[in-house]
Amino acid sequence: MKSLHSKVVTITGAASGMGRALALQCASLGSKLAISDIDEKGVEETAARARKAGAAEVDVIKLDVADRAAIYAWAKRIEEKLGGTDVLVNNAGVSLSCSVEAMTDADFEWLFAINFWGVVNGCKAFLPQLKAKPEAHIVNMSSVFGIIGVPSQSAYCAAKFAVRGYSESLRQELALAKTKVRVTCVHPGGIKTEIARRGRHYEDPLGGKTDTATAAANFEQAARTTAEDAA
């Protein structure tokens, strides 16, 4: 795929960070956008900015990627309103800092439902319309923590490792089936986004206690790459 002009680009987690930056860059290239986020106010702001940036069309919706039925309904909506997606970016994600021993099942399942199952739900829901296109692409957001394990990040690492393995398998299946759908798995690290501020944080990497505000401040100090550069 050499051009995104007039292509329908579908992005989850588009209310801020890399999702918003991707949406605005695609808008400047004349793409049609289908964007979603659980943060309704934030994603509506992204939509307004995208229209000003030159998007050919923008469809925006409040969406929880952990809600499988909602994602399938969203895919149907995009097919009916925009003719189906050409590029799917499974970007939505959350963070969680806690030791394996102290982590509750509820917190673990919360993160996995979004960071892993959100990707699976998106791929499954949109794959039929992607395969119907003359060329199409899936971009799944993993992390540098999908390559290495880090203390206090067991749930996040597990989900991002899972996204990596799932994406590699999917890419090979689509190639073997001789489809025109390509798959890219991305591994960002240290990106200045709202992910830490919107996450759940109980322990730091050294095993000490922490809270969301402190974890977010430490993350923002350490992060060196802007969302725009990452996008």
Describe this structure in words.
The protein is α/β, with parallel strands linked by helices and 231 residues long. 45% of the residues lie in helices and 17% in strands. The protein contains 8 helices and 10 strands. The protein has helices at residues 17-28, 40-53, 68-82, 105-115, 117-131, 154-176, 212-222, 227-230; strands spanning 8-11, 32-37, 57-62, 87-90, 96-97, 136-141, 181-186, 191-192, 200-201, 225-226. The protein has a 6-stranded parallel beta sheet, sandwiched between helices. Strands 5-9 form a two-stranded parallel ribbon. The protein has a two-stranded parallel ribbon with strand order 8-10. The longest helix is centred in the C-terminal third of the chain and has 23 residues, at 154-176. The model has no long low-confidence stretch (mean pLDDT 93).
Tally of DSSP helical segments = 8
Order of helices and strands: EHEHEHEEHHEHEEEHEH
Radius of gyration, in Å, reads: 17 Å
Query: Strand arrangement, largest sheet?
Result: 3-2-1-4-6-7
pLDDT < 50 stretches: none
- Which bin fits the share of residues in helices? 40-55%
Q: What average pLDDT do the residues reach? A: 93
Distance between the ends: 17 Å
Beta-strand percent range: 15-25%
Largest sheet: 6 strands, parallel
Shape: globular
Question: Which structural class do the helices and strands define?
Answer: alpha/beta
Count the E strands. 10
SSE blueprint and pairings:
Layout: E1 8-11, H1 17-28, E2 32-37, H2 40-53, E3 57-62, H3 68-82, E4 87-90, E5 96-97, H4 105-115, H5 117-131, E6 136-141, H6 154-176, E7 181-186, E8 191-192, E9 200-201, H7 212-222, E10 225-226, H8 227-230
Parallel strand pairs: 1-2, 1-4, 2-3, 4-6, 5-9, 6-7, 8-10
Helix pairs in contact: 1-2, 3-5, 4-6
